[in-house]
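Quarterly update from the structural biology core.
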Amino acid sequence: MIRFIKSLLATLLIVAGLAGCASPDVTQYTNESPELDLVRFFQGKTQAWGMFQKRGGEVVKRFHVVINGTWLDEKLVLDEHFTYSDGTRERRVWTLVKNDQGRWTGTADDVIGTATGELAGNAFRWRYTLALPVDGTVYHVHFDDWMFLMDENTLINRASMSKFGIELGQVTLFFQREAPQ
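Predicted structure, tokenized:
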């Protein structure tokens, strides 16, 4: 009987642990407002400020991003220019394509394969694998980004960065869209 109870408790702990790892579905935000329109938000100039934190909470890097967005030939092109707190600079150019039912795909030179995204209400979930250089070695790390439109000009992004299913840290970004002239 004791063996049965131990086995049952172990099974319940595993199930509870797995349930805790489940992430929300973007469709639960369908009725949230203001409604996020990626093209409208990112077309033109946008600035962002962010930081990377290790899983224990230590801030490792801070950065500023200037993004120039254009909608051309049914593609949203985001030309991102990063400046990090240590003085290093980086550029990433995303090309995003709108598909059906709020789905998006995207590519960038340092993204492995194709990024996939889902949009609903004020939320956008964006998942991709990035070739991330660290101290002379390039690691392929998975990003699970969640973006939430707060108001017409402000977007908050929180991304979980992981490798082999183990979280390495979090990236937090605040985007500020420049009002059109």
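The mean pLDDT is 90.
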